[in-house]
Amino acid sequence: MKFLERIFNHKQDDKKKEEPGRNDGCWCGSGKKYKRCHLEKDEEKRRRQGGLA
Fold first, then answer.
1. Rounded CA separation 5/20 (Å)
2. Is residue 51 part of a domain?
3. CA neighbours closer than 13 Å in the CB half-sphere of residue 27
4. Which of 16, 37, 42, 47 has the maximal Cβ count within 10 Å?
5. What integer pLDDT is reported at residue 17 of this predicted model?
6. Does residue 24 fall inside a structural domain?
7. Residue 21: how many other CB atoms lie within 10 Å
8. Cβ(53)–Cβ(44) under 8 Å?
């Protein structure tokens, strides 16, 4: 049972590291909220990668 818990918890941790929430601290370490720091830049990068720009 613990093996399955580690697998499922690990996937949740990976997702959290990939994409911070809007009100979480920014990944760059500036101390600002993500939405006030890098959200706009990251969304623009995603749009360009997806061919939507």
1. 22
2. yes
3. 11
4. 37
5. 59
6. yes
7. 11
8. yes
